[in-house]
Design brief:
Elements: E1 2-5, E2 8-17, E3 23-26, E4 32-37, H1 42-51, H2 53-68, E5 80-83, E6 86-94, E7 103-107, E8 110-115, H3 120-146, E9 156-160, E10 167-169, E11 174-178, H4 186-198, H5 207-216, H6 220-230
Parallel strand pairs: 2-4, 6-8, 9-11
Antiparallel strand pairs: 1-2, 3-4, 5-6, 7-8, 10-11
Helix pairs in contact: 3-4, 4-5
Length: 236
């Protein structure tokens, strides 16, 4: 079925079930399903869709962007980058040559990139260093918060540039974390930390491992979903 409202058109499917209210779901491909009580008038179904129209359009736009894949970043003022789960604009500021290293400061919801030369690569490297530093500080804070749940402590903590993992734990209790985690919300960072700390107890992903993860963070699947659906945006 198709419905046009406020200048845009969506396709949706209706399933009538034994329920008391109308529910609307969207899968990872943008397919919309309306679950409605039996004999619900079409007008009520359309009204339910229109009441959530703005949110539906936002989700559809995000899915379209995800399917198109990561877009090349432009290191120009007002280009946006993720930090702690939200997008913020950058502002590039040229400093004099006395500073020892280009750097980034986050304030007033702007990522200020201070560089000695207006050069895209220098801005990119400064931003990467910022994410590395922030990731290390955030991970170490999470470890200190959740350490009380474990009898053992990690022997070392490193931040790496992994292409495949958000974090790892080896048999020597050495933990590593992907620097791009600084782009994720704090609770998602907490989940990855908890996940790897649980590997200090259970090295594989058996039932005991997941029980321990769930005991410490019952809603961990929501954090996994955020990473699964948002990792394409985590780029510099």
């Amino acid at each position: 079925m198709l419905h046009t409202y406020s200048g845009s058109t969506i396709k949706y499917e209706v399933k009538y079930k034994n329920r008391t209210s109308i529910g609307i779901t969207m899968n990872s491909y943008g397919e919309i399903e309306v679950q409605a009580p039996k004999k619900t008038p079409d007008e009520k179904i359309l009204q339910a869709l229109e009441n959530r129209w703005e949110l539906i359009q936002e989700k559809l736009a995000e899915i379209k962007a995800r399917m198109n894949g990561p877009q090349e970043k432009l290191y120009e003022n007002n280009e946006s980058f993720l930090y702690l789960g939200k997008s913020y604009p950058i502002k590039i500021v040229q400093e004099d040559a006395t500073i020892s290293q280009d750097y980034v400061v986050f304030e007033q919801e702007i990522l200020y990139i201070y560089v000695t030369q207006l050069n895209e690569e220098k801005s990119k490297q400064a931003l990467r260093r910022f994410y590395y530093q922030q990731c290390k500080a955030l991970v170490e804070k999470s470890i200190s918060i959740y350490q009380s749940n474990f009898k053992t402590k990690p022997r070392s903590v490193r931040i790496t540039d992994s292409k495949t993992n958000w974090g790892t734990c080896d048999s020597n209790l050495r933990l590593t974390f992907n620097w791009k985690l600084a782009m994720a919300p704090r609770d998602v960072i907490d989940y990855v930390v908890i996940h790897e700390m649980c590997h200090m107890v259970h090295l594989n992903h058996d039932r005991s491992f997941w029980r321990l993860v769930g005991k410490i963070m019952p809603d961990y699947k929501q954090k996994e979903n955020w990473l699964a659906f948002s990792n394409w945006k985590m780029t510099v």
